[in-house]
Amino acid sequence: MSKTFIVAALFAVLLPTAAWAGGFCCQMPTGVEETGASGNFSLRADYTYSRMSEIYSGDSHKSLSSVSEDPRFRKMMGVIPVSMDMQRVTMSASYSPIKRLRVTLAVPWVINDMTMIMFMPATKWSRPGKMDQISDLGDITLMGSYRIYQDKDLMPSTAITVGAGVKFPSGPSTINNRKKRIHAHMQPGTGSWDPILTLSFMKMINSDFMVQADTRYEIATANGLGYSFGDTVAVNAYLKYNLTDYINLSLGANYFHSEQSDDPNNKYNGKVSKRLTDYSGYTGEDNIWVSPGFQIMPFKGASVDFRFQYPVYQHVRDIAQVTDYRLTTGISYSF
Predict the structure, then answer these.
(1) How far apart are CA 48 and CA 32, in angstroms?
(2) CATH number, residue 255
(3) I want to staple 48 with a disulfide (CB 3.0 to 4.6 A). Which of 88, 115, 133, 293 is the partner?
(4) Whole-angstrom Cα distance, residue 45 to residue 42?
(5) Structural domain boundaries enclosing 107
(6) Phi, psi for 11 (deg, rounded to 5)
(7) Tens of pLDDT along 263-294?
(8) Number of domains in the chain
């Protein structure tokens, strides 16, 4: 599936010949129009592409050549990842059965590719080899959010929303590649039931500026093989500017934290330190990103949005491959 084609298609689907004057009015923190009444239904499609090729030790960049000289990996069948390309297409639907309450079901499709090198004492490091592509259903999420405060019933300028949900173990989590189980973080699913808590805030400063902030805490539980991916926390803040009645510009700052994963039964090579792709002791990270983006509202109820995320700070517990950049784009329609 071509990344360029997906982005172009998402843009073209809702690009109008005449746009509807939407501005900021009636928008939820997600960017989807909200009427404030029960019965509001929304559909959304998102595409995310993440590129990983940089390796960090602590908060310092490490070249591939320097990592390949690390004695931990210069052992029989030692593995170092050269690059990872992770894609996710998510279809979601949300419904408001009563005022202030919204229920959302999100279904992702995951596409993962990895290129790696392997150490063989006789020949040293192999040429980069690509593992078979992983493409399958990811973990489905069901969320409920309730607006606990808004300064007025119709088109509020200030609002606070809390949410709770669960991530289901719907995606495969035990896929093998050439008779060996692939890296846990390359699996389409986690195999675990993970509770999720959210909190979001929206404030209209004036007709041209709006501030949005949200946080998400995901509690990782062990899957059937005993593997736990580690709890994660994400904090996001955005300033949006209403360039025209139908185009918004945004600039965001994002913080992401993940705890170390655990593979007590060694079902995913999580105790094998010569494999940089697998060893759970190399997991756990903190990242800070900047996220410029824009949103187009081509007609009533519809929106198209793009966001580019670039890391300005990365810190890993020991040594790990990190994300170079991330591109997200989505389309939504509410009625």
Answers:
(1) 18
(2) 2.40.160.40
(3) 88
(4) 10
(5) 3-334
(6) -70, -40
(7) 999 999 999 999 999 999 999 999 999 999 99
(8) 1
